[in-house]
Amino acid sequence: METTAEPTNEANEEHIRHRAYMLWLEEGQPEGRADDHWHQAWSGAERKDAAPVAVTVPKGKAK
């Protein structure tokens, strides 16, 4: 039986948590902005998931 690696909700949440933390650091660690940073990080993850994936085909290989 073959299994595929798919991102789990837990992995997504960890990514969002890390991004929110990085946003907080970038803004100088302001008090009371946790929800704003979480929503910014979540929104960015949503856009990333919805963005089309670009594929590069080596020259001469396209058919």
Question: What tags apply to this protein structure?
Answer:
0% strand; mainly alpha; 63 residues; single chain
Q: Quick recap of the structure?
A:
With 63 residues, the protein is mostly helical.
- Which range does the strand content fall in? under 5%
Mean pLDDT: 78
Identify the overall geometry.
elongated
Biggest pleated-sheet summary:
none
Q: How many β strands by DSSP?
A: 0
Helix content: 55-70%
CA-to-CA gap between the ends? 33 Å
Secondary structure topology:
Layout (H helix, E strand, L loop, with lengths): L8 H18 L7 H17 L13
Helix pairs in contact: 1-2
Q: Can you give a write-up of this model?
A:
- This protein is mainly alpha-helical.
- It is built from two helices and no strands.
- It has helices spanning about 10-25, 35-50.
- Helix 1 crosses helix 2 (about 35-50).
- The chain is elongated and about 55 Å long.
- The two termini are about 35 Å apart.
- The relative contact order is 0.12.
- The mean pLDDT is about 80.
